[in-house]
Amino acid sequence: MNYTQPVVETSPKVSDEIRKTTCYMCACRCGINVHMKDGKVAYIEGNKDHPVNKGVLCAKGSAGIMQVNAPSRLKAPLKRVGERGSGEFEEISWDEALEIASTRLAKVRADDPSKLAFFTGRDQSQSFTSFWAQGYGTPNYAAHGGFCSVNMAAAGIYTMGGAFWEFGQPDWDHTKMFMLFGVAEDHDSNPIKMGLGKLKKRGAKVVGVNPIRTGYNAIADEWVGITPGTDGLFITALIHELMKAGKIDLHYLAQYTNAPVLLDRDPNSDSYGLFLRDKDNKPLVIDRNTGKKVAFDKKGIKPDLNGSIRKAGISHTTVFHKMAETYMAPEHDAANVAERCGVPEETIRRLAAELAHVAFEQEISLPIEWTDFRGEKHSEMIGRPVSFHAMRGISAHANGFQTCRALHILQIILGSVEVPGGFRMKPPYPKSAEIHPKPHYGYQAGKPLDGPHLGFTHGPEDLALKDDGTPARIDKAFTWENPMSSHGLMHMVISNAHAGDPYKIDTLFMYMANMSWNSSMNTGGVMKMLTDKDENGDYVIPNIIYSDAYSSEMVAYADLVLPDATYLERHDCISLLDRPICEADGAADAIRWPVIEPDRDVRGFQSVLCDLGARLGLPNFTNDDGSQKFADYADYIVNHERKPGIGPLAGFRGDGDEFGRGDVNPDQLDKYIENGGFAISHIDEGASYYKPWNMAYQEWAVDTGLFDAPSPYLFQLYVEPMRKFQLAAEGHGERQPPEHLRERIREGMNPLPVWNNSTDENYPIHALTQRPMAMYHSWGTQNAWLRQIHGVNPLYVPTKIWEANGFADGDWAKVTSPHGEITVPVAHQAALNENTIWTWNAIGKRKGAWALDENAPEAKKGFLLNHLIHELMPAKGDGMRWANSDPITGQAAWFDLKVAIEKVDAPDQVQPNIPAQKSPVGKGPKNLTWKVGS
Amino acid sequence: MHPAPSVILFSVLSGLGFGMLAWLGFGEPGVTGMSAFIFFFVAYALAVGGLLSATFHLGNPKNALKSFSQWRTSWLSREGCCAVAALLVMGIYAIGAIFLETHWVFVGIIGAILSIVTVFTTSMIYGQLKTVPRWNHWTTPPLFLSLSIFGGALMTGQIKVAMVGFIVVGLIQIAAWLMGDKQFATRGSSMETATGLGDIGKVRMFEPPHTGTNYLLKEMVYVIGRKHAMKLRVIAILLMVVIPVLMIWMGAHHDIKAVIAVLSHIVGVFASRWLFFAEAEHVVGLYYGKRG
Amino acid sequence: MTALPAKSDVKLGLVIDLDTCVGCHACVVSCKGWNTENYGAPLSDQDAYGENPSGTFLNRVHSFEVQPEQGAAQTIHFPKSCLHCEDAPCVTVCPTGASYKRAEDGIVLVNEDACIGCGLCAWACPYGARELDQAAGVMKKCTLCVDRIYNENLPEEDREPACVRTCPAGARHFGDLGDENSDVSQLVKERGGMDLMPELGTKPVNKYLPPRPKDTGNEIDILAPLLAPVATETTGFLGWLDRTLEKL
């Protein structure tokens, strides 16, 4: 019998056209090819030429088609007609909406611009929104970094001028041992997956330090199931073991860090603990060649790690001395931390030994010549092929800043930062904390702010305090409560505004921030604050304007809703001025452009700000004749210049072939579109490592417009600004902390990181959340494809607790914290720290939100841990509101949650169950058979 | 396996129908005329009704005619071919018996054999599936065949045969259950072999690939409680075997006892067939941490 | 034609690396997207925004825990789609000839024009690789992107299945497992690629690379001694430091 089979068309037409833009299904900013058929989006895949993702794309990115077609998309501006929170709105015109907004905002600006709190959530246009807020003149602006991972950013920048986040990457091509701390699936996710793939291909060792063995930790060759919040202790034990064994990179420490810088060691001195400086204010070191003290950057010196000097009766020794005293102490011995960390002593010692072995016995060298900032020429680039990464997991604790700092100290003593095989920064980093802006908060009625809102404080003089010592900002950023809160504290805004602490506001203006749900601690409390009325029957927070593309939980709490366009319907720039898409080997930025036109009466939020800015007469948004300066966001992207020759986009400037610096090019966006939506300028090989000290890199950075002048610096193992805050708390200087904060500053602002417990000892179990890789916050749920993957989120319980409670599949539990209780479904996980329970983040939804059926599993079985976490610590009886945040940076301490758990009878739905909000967009269709082409 | 009503209805009714046709083809009872019409009507109603109900199980019945084409490899195609052949041949035989008062013995025997083969092909649709160890066992064809033949005997008034036959059915059924209970383990498929991870250790499901349901779970992963199943087994045996045998032994013949015997048997077969599906565990359940 | 073709030399398939898969579901959704828009009926979703959403997917990622005798449990992410078996039981059971295995490359396909949606092929498949689309009523399964891998309208580098192209970690490999010199065959050889449920005799073409041994923690013992202290106290340490710095 002859075998016959049907003929298959193996070369069907794929699409009419490919439009290349940038994904916005999470914060990764991957390049995507949007395949169009009949003018509609047919298929989305990764862009192979793109520096971020090189063709790959995650589940969310591929599901973008279900996001641009989601029934939850808002359709027109909305004016609230029911009570706040009810979701009852009427659709109004843009004219009316803009009239309402501009009338209100104009009045506030004329009276007191600080009465506007303008906070943006998962905004990827922060350099623009902050520019608008500066023009408006309110000191109250920030994005969501405060409740996300400011600890990671700030600790990295203060310590080494760059952070993990997506601002750097392990040298995936050379590293031989990679150690990953905590949940890190939430940022830079495709690049990390690609990097892990490279390591796996080479068989390099991956160590996962995480209470939970999922995701990246599932493929780790070794899993260290650490107890939450003890990473800092574990890391300082590694530092202890390495120092004790002398397995540290002395040359690197002497040449590139402040380890040899001389410190005032006299407890009676006014400058106790500060650096010895010369008259140019440069920190001093002892040169081993001469034995003399010299400025740290003097040509040809050999800074002495073991230097000491007596000057004016005050003894000075090096930072390294102080480090030895601190970390050699027996409290850091593996034996003394093992139990607390839940990691056996032998494992800590072995891991230290492995790190040392790989760093020093498997040293690599690349034959690349380079010249350092002291003029010394090097014939090769030595590499220590151990690398580290961490993100939310170690950040979101009240001890997160110091934990992140400890991790950086670990990688610095191993000599593995900015070297082959180690951790590499991406432009605009490395960049010393000292050349970042300082916070600005000077406001006047009817005037712009005196500078950018956010920045880095270097001592009490930089705090955002009014003359009477009270906080200038509504979120109390840059105050004694959290002096180094570089990203602000968005999670405190509603709570503070409601409490009138430090003051009341008139209008809360937010963008893309689901503050009445998964983006807030104490979700139920926040809902109440947003709906609370005063004795006159007026809302305590009088006006709320909110912009979002989708019918989120927060929409229901707005008085005015400005509907945003989806990511395929809008312009955006992923700019070197805020959070670009660079690689370690190049500077890159990207755009989004409307690959489809909105089919609804919606406008990109940034374009709306251009309009509002002109209506309000903000000087940076109006021409001299008072007319609107930027027609829309695209106009701003092309024509705005932050400094002469430097604008939001670095690529295709001037006549189209200049990168970084160059005149405005009216065809710039077309050039980006032609180039696949991005631009990149590669770094020469000679500038590729040792960047903070490599003059070839420093010059490239100046040419590219990242700096105005070469700015080499030392890694700050010892962060002197922290010592300045401590000194103030010890009674020095004009600005000193209020009495109730003195001790906390003294204890907490240790300039060399040591661990302190940040969790409640009275509750036995740690409770965490992780973000599933196929979901981004609340956005994924409205996506018909993704919600099938993660439609409910059980509470995962380790074997010990599972058995102790006699749990079985299908059981439910009541989980109690000092703040509240929830009743939720449980599931068993063996590969889990025995004192930890956890769930997926932001799967639970409020009924009526996101155009879902009110009986959706997300609403009946999905839940938030947020109900258990308060934005304030339990009251101490002193009348003070103590934020549940890192006392240094204000980072929301999500992961300090401790709970108790008990088995209960299964209810018909999770508790608490918030009543439904009315959907302003109706419900989604029943069934989908999606196919746009014929 | 999901006990889909359409498939249960089909296999029970068509089994009985073809069982009746087989007996009629063999000339038992050798009725003619109106009496033959009634017998053939009932047999055809059961067989054809069953086949029709099976089409409700199809997602896309418009291509149904194509299903006669793959008789070389497919038991389902063979079943279709045999069923049509049996119905046609027995139709000729029925015409003779009803209208011509004559029994074409040769045609009848062919038709009878085709009817039995049809039931055999039905049984092999299930019996061939290695993926369902309980079905993939020598007891499956005897169970279907014995139910069909002796159910047919009852329906065609061969009550003595039926009485003895039902005892055989009961024994086969009990054997099928008892051996079936061990089949999954005997075949050796486990989460360890399904995932290939057995060399590392004991495997359990951590997270399913989707938090809701899907076709696979609805169709092939049906979990029935042990106690529930045991109760149903007792009921099935009582109704399908014990009560009809008792009725016949008590002398059922064109009376209420006969009606009870028939109805009891049919309801019992439904229970048995429901269990046949509900207790059958598909190996795909292993990927969901479920045997079932 | 539901008879299996005479053995072909080309056996296209996937090699899935369980040591590398992080369980991100990228392959799942990329597959859904491509196959909704391409070969045959779209992959539909029922109750898409409702109480009980479900839909047709041709590739799904399971997650398992494995408990070794010693040490911590391991989490394994486990993508699963059609394995394009050499002895594909789903093909031979098909009554209409809709289910077939291509002679030239071994890909198992469903000809939707001939499918009656009886579901028997899905019953015959041990791996759950086939799902009956509830809107179209026809059986859907992985086509190994037969409309990509030979597609002359795609750049050559894109002529691979959508799931392979999109996989961020590089845990999925596509190639000819009939050619022992192919990259995929070499990978299978080096890493001990395995079959799923070999006891059923389906002879899958797709192979799974097992996870490498984990939590062994003894590499260092072979390579070097554990850290020997140069000093246990600060003063001793600073002495060591001075001596060492002299040598630098």
- How far apart, in Å, are the first and last alpha carbons of chain C? 77 Å
CATH architecture of chain C: 2-Layer Sandwich
Summarize the main sheet of chain C: 3 strands, mixed
Distance between the termini of chain B: 7 Å
Structure, explained:
The complex is a heterotrimer of chains A (934), B (292) and C (248). Chain A is α/β, with parallel strands linked by helices and 934 residues long. Among the domains of chain A are: 78-151 and 436-563, 3-Layer(aba) Sandwich (Rossmann fold), CATH 3.40.50.740; 164-428, Dimethylsulfoxide Reductase, domain 2 (3-Layer(aba) Sandwich); 765-904, Barwin-like endoglucanases. Chain A is 24% helix and 16% strand. Chain A has a seven-stranded mixed sheet with strand order 5-4-25-24-23-6-7, sandwiched between helices. The radius of gyration of chain A is 27 Å and the shape is globular. With 292 residues, chain B is mainly α. In chain B, helix 1 (5-25) packs antiparallel against helix 2 (33-55) and helix 1 crosses helix 10 (256-278). Chain C has helices at residues 26-37, 89-92, 120-124, 146-149, 162-166, 183-191, 219-223, 234-247, and strands at 12-17, 45-46, 54-55, 59-67, 74-81, 99-101, 108-110, 130-132, 139-141, 172-176, 207-209. In chain C, the strands form five sheets. Chain C has a three-stranded mixed sheet, with helices on one face. Classes of the chains: A alpha/beta (934), B mainly alpha (292), C alpha+beta (248). Chains in contact: A-B, A-C, B-C. Chains A and C meet through strand 3, helix 1, helix 6, helix 7 and helix 8 of A and helix 1, strand 2, strand 3, strand 4 and strand 5 of C. Strand 1 (202-207) of chain B pairs antiparallel with strand 4 of chain C.
